[in-house]
Write a structure and sequence with these properties.
By secondary structure, the chain is of the alpha+beta class. Helix content is about 35%, strand content about 20%. It is globular, with a radius of gyration of 32 Å.
Length: about 1000
């Protein structure tokens, strides 16, 4: 028999101080009749819980949880689901709660508001701020970018509308399903231990709590799983909602496949156990494994953790599944009876004043994050030289001095005042996020305080991640007041769940806060934050009474930030296939063999970008078998036995390798393809590249050429520097390799890489590839430049890789040395030819190659932008003006028109890429040297000189072209999303170009004459 414990829910079966209480039954009582203590019991309506798919874009989007910019998704391990549970009072159905647990990182203010808005449209006056809770299971492998506040958006490059919409729509779908299936039922409650699924990741902080308090508990982990069972009127179990504390970090930071982590795995295992022939997301039985107070609790323990993160994920999920099954199969769980209550208030935690139990008046602080926050945890170590538990402000990376506002007026957060420092003491403030409101609010100051009551069960919905001991203190304080006020008897059962409704980082005890490990450094509102929450939640308790007729004040509503949200992620405006290929073609088929259990089956298809269609409630892949002559789907992309990956293919690197091999077959070419697909490996092998670990590549190579997406250029340079530094001066590597950066990055980024490598004495050559991938009879041109001391290295590269400068098409690389150009010259050329770049600080000696690249793009793509602008302007005036414009060009500027038609056609699918390029060119025009702002060579944007005014005016022209390209891109994206509307900019330009092509077949022989607004003499 599994029993539940009314006072110490942390570790049932282990506590000797508080013996178990025999479960109470209600067989002799009828709904609405008083119990022996005079309180009324109530029968409940319960729903068949609902599910909804909340999986956002599974490629080209930053993942949520580890705050790692390189962790960009490229596929799917398991879909993310929302599971909704409705409980209503049989006597007063308006008294109800809606509990949504979703496989996402956290609840969020903007998302919850979006859900409430949709529910209000569907069910007027039924669901409100008070009775709807959104809780994240805290998976760190889900899609990012859905939150409203800025700080969590930084690594996702801003707000991701697709991700937000998926979470809102999937949650509403789950809620709607649960609402529509509301029917009579019963609830029962129990708990048990989950062993071997979690350990405390900050034990030194836990040990700072008073020994007498720690002695009341068997350990530093809450091993209890509490479970609320849903049973329908026929006695059939329809689902459950369980509460267990363990972080969603079973899958590591280096994973790039979207997954629901260990709680999603547990839910999949249970739902499949109940209905084995039903596909994920289609089950009638719904298993809710929601999060509890897991702030300092990690699943990374045991042999599975050492073998594989996916294996560990399965093990931790299975242990939660086993505990839930134990409880669900117990026939003696405690019935849950009593009224339904829901309470909610918004509270400004940046300045909440209250009285401590010792009579002292204290106030919480404006939100700020400490150095321990940047130090990370054992689950995801921090960066920039920070470590946990360091309360000092010395011996740290100076970069953060800029970020936190110590050394510059342009810091991203304002420097803390003395009052703020005193308030947060002993936490040294790193990010003063409470005062960071540009371009919009970074972190919440207003949080949700919410409580649900279902009979003797009380659920505390928490706006942050509570540590083990902070959760124990809060639950105990609430229960004490419940019993003291006579609202619930000794059978009161209190659970806590979060992060719910918003995300305000962590909550620690004051003792843990003083240690300043990650959790303490991430406690936003200062050392009294936990005590403030205890004050707030306990003050709500009287409103839970059976006869309560009032509610707590609503409080100050947080600002809706979505109108201010910035997103740097562009939509998919063009998908293409290689020549002679079409979408759906098989690239690599399954082996023609007999497959047995344990083998992996794989196939590669020519596939479109999954961001075109998220396939919510559907699948990107299906595993089928024949049953009675009919193909039936037995697995989808939501099943953990399948993985789906997608990648853009780029043949530039392999093409360059082929050209080198054809010219100098004796040269050994290396690449490092760790984590890449079999097709990438096959393409590299065909080009003569040997796939080796990065360490071997650095040890054996005399020249390293970087050809990558621009966003990865700096990351690779950092990795190579670190590897070289580790072997510098050894037998493996006595001399550094020559490093050639041939990526489409700005002069300033190139200079940043050059400066980075210079610290390790690695010769740096700036490169710029102009043209497409090599093919038979054609090679792109490779412009190179370097500082004078490395011009010998350039000659060495040309001799080695370019056939001694005697280039023949398809035989060696077509090098062009920009003598005396310095670092930056080649990259500037590419930017002038308009590759997108990011401006960062530039060494004063970095010049020519980058500038040449910038200049070329400014001419080619800039002129295309001007032509498109004129087309749109003429059309906006009247169709007749547009027609006359076209005909005049055909008559007097035929060569210009011919080239423009070709350029405009190619621009439309690429407009989204050209927006950033035009912005970079604008910056290049304003600051052509690329010098840092503090350099005397770099004019300030506010400096009132004739040169800066002139340069600024010209730069604004390119910014205007950028905005025009954005309009084209937005129109293409709208059409790709099947949004109806009038003909947009892309369609107008495309139609004009089509007319132009027809006209060029028969150009006009005379200029166009006008009579009023009507053109005459126009050829038909």
């Amino acid at each position: 028999m599994v029993q539940w414990y009314p006072q110490v829910q942390d570790d049932p079966g282990h506590s000797t101080a508080l013996p178990p209480v025999e479960p109470q039954t209600s067989t002799s009582r009828q709904p609405g009749t008083p119990s022996e203590d005079g309180r009324f019991t109530h029968a409940n309506f319960t729903s068949l819980p609902g599910t909804g798919d909340v999986t956002g874009p599974i490629v080209e989007t930053n993942m949520f949880g580890y705050a790692s910019l390189p962790q960009t998704d490229n596929g799917l391990h398991m879909r993310q689901w929302a599971r909704a549970f409705v409980i209503a009072d049989a006597q007063t159905p308006s008294e109800r709660i809606l509990f949504i647990t979703a496989d996402i990182w956290s609840g969020d203010t903007a998302v919850r508001k979006g859900i409430l808005t949709k529910l209000e449209e569907l069910y007027l006056g039924v669901y409100s701020e008070s009775n709807v809770a959104l809780v994240g299971t805290h998976s760190h492998s889900g899609v990012g970018g859905y939150t409203g506040y800025l700080l969590p958006q930084i690594t996702s490059m801003g707000f991701i509308r697709q991700s937000y919409d998926a979470v809102v729509q999937g949650s509403v779908r789950a809620a709607t399903e649960a609402h529509e299936l509301l029917s009579p039922g019963t609830l029962s409650l129990g708990n048990t231990s989950v062993n071997g699924a979690a350990v405390n990741r900050s034990p030194s902080s836990y040990l700072a709590n008073p020994k007498e308090e720690r002695d009341r508990y068997p350990g530093d982990v809450d091993s209890a799983m509490s479970l609320l069972k849903f049973t329908d009127a026929s006695g059939e179990d329809r689902g459950f909602l369980s509460f267990f504390a363990v972080h969603g970090v079973s899958i590591y930071e280096n994973n790039t496949l979207i997954s629901s982590d260990n709680k999603g795995m547990a839910a999949h295992l249970y739902e499949s156990y109940k209905e084995p022939s039903v596909l994920p997301g289609k089950h009638q039985f719904v298993a809710g494994f929601t999060q509890a107070t897991s702030g300092d609790i990690t699943p990374n323990t045991g042999p599975g953790y050492q073998l594989s993160d996916f294996k560990s994920n399965e093990i931790i999920g299975t242990r939660q599944f086993d505990a839930a099954r134990t409880l669900m199969e117990d026939t003696k769980l405690t019935p849950v009876e009593g009224p339904i209550r829901s309470l909610h208030s918004y509270v400004d935690m940046s300045n909440y004043t209250f009285i401590l139990t010792n009579g002292t008046e204290v106030t919480t602080c404006s939100p700020a994050l400490g150095y321990g926050f940047a130090g990370g945890t054992t689950d995801g170590p921090g960066a920039f030289s920070f470590i946990q538990g360091d309360n000092t402000t010395t011996h740290h990376n100076p970069f953060w001095d800029v970020v936190k506002g110590e050394r510059t007026d342009s810091a991203v957060t304002a420097p803390p005042s003395q009052e703020e420092k005193d308030c947060h003491w002993p936490k040294p403030i790193l990010l003063n996020v409470g005062r960071a409101e540009k371009p919009y609010q970074w972190s919440p100051t207003i949080v949700d305080i919410q409580i649900f009551r279902v009979g003797q069960l009380v659920m505390l919905l928490l706006p942050s991640e509570f540590t083990t001991m902070s959760g124990r203190r809060l639950r105990e304080a609430v229960k004490i007041r419940l019993v003291k006020e006579g609202i619930i008897g000794d059978d009161a059962y209190v659970v806590a769940s979060g992060p719910a409704n918003t995300y305000s980082h962590y909550t620690t005890t004051p003792e843990e806060y003083a240690i300043q490990r990650y959790e303490g450094g991430s406690t936003l509102y200062g050392p009294h934050q936990l005590e403030a929450y205890i004050d707030l939640y306990t003050s709500m308790v009287p409103f839970l009474a059976d006869n309560a007729t009032t509610s707590p004040p609503p409080g100050p509503e947080p600002e809706d930030l979505l109108d201010k949200a910035i997103s740097l992620q562009k939509g998919v405006v063009y998908d293409g296939t290689p020549m002679f290929k079409k979408f759906g073609d098989i690239v690599s088929d399954v082996e023609n063999d007999i497959y047995r259990s344990g083998r992996t089956v794989s196939a590669v298809f020519q596939g479109a970008n999954p961001r075109n269609n998220l396939r919510l409630e559907e699948t990107f892949l299906a595993i089928q078998h024949v049953v009675g002559g009919t193909w039936q789907t037995v697995r989808t992309d939501a099943h953990p036995s399948t993985t789906f990956t997608w990648k853009r293919t780029n043949k530039m690197g392999a093409g360059l390798a082929r050209s080198i091999s054809s010219c100098s077959p004796s040269i050994t070419l290396f690449t490092s393809l760790s984590g890449r697909s079999e097709s990438s490996r096959a393409r590299a092998a065909q080009a003569g590249l040997q796939d080796v670990p990065m360490e071997e590549l650095i040890a054996k190579s005399s020249v390293v050429i970087s050809v990558l997406p621009p966003s990865l250029a700096v990351k690779l340079a950092v990795e190579i520097k670190e590897i070289y530094d580790s072997m510098k001066g050894t037998v493996e590597r006595k001399e550094p390799p020559i490093y050639v950066d041939a990526n489409a990055v700005s002069p300033s980024t190139t200079s940043r890489i050059a400066k980075l490598l210079a610290s390790s004495s690695i010769p740096f050559v700036d490169g710029s590839i102009i043209g497409g991938p090599p093919r038979d009879g054609y090679d792109p041109r490779l412009y190179i430049s370097a500082e004078p001391k490395y011009e010998g290295a350039m000659s060495e590269i040309v001799e080695l890789l370019g056939g001694g400068g005697k280039h023949r098409n398809g035989k060696g690389l077509d090098f062009h040395i920009l003598k005396d150009g310095g670092v930056g010259a080649a990259s500037a050329l590419k930017a002038s030819l308009s590759h997108r770049t990011r401006c960062q600080r530039l060494l004063e000696s970095d010049r020519i190659a980058i500038q040449q690249q910038m200049s070329y793009a400014g001419i080619t793509k800039g002129s295309t932008g001007l032509m498109a602008t004129m087309i749109l302007s003429a059309t906006a005036h009247s169709p007749q003006t547009a027609q006359a414009f076209l005909e005049e060009l055909a008559y007097s500027q035929a060569d210009v028109l011919k080239r423009s038609l070709w350029m405009v056609d190619g621009m439309i699918p690429k407009a989204y890429r050209w927006v950033g390029e035009m912005e970079e060119i604008a910056d290049y025009i304003f600051n052509p040297t690329g010098a840092a702002p503090e350099s005397v060579e770099a004019p300030s944007r506010t400096e009132d000189t004739s040169r800066t005014r002139s340069a600024g005016d010209i730069a604004d022209t390119y910014r205007g072209i950028a905005r025009m390209f954005q309009r084209i891109a937005d129109d293409v994206e709208r059409k790709a999303s099947h949004v109806d509307g009038d003909a947009g900019d892309a369609e107008i330009v495309k139609a004009w170009a089509e007319k132009g092509r027809k006209m060029m077949a028969k150009p006009p022989t005379a200029p166009i004459a006008f009579t009023g607004n009507e053109p005459t003499g126009a050829p038909q």
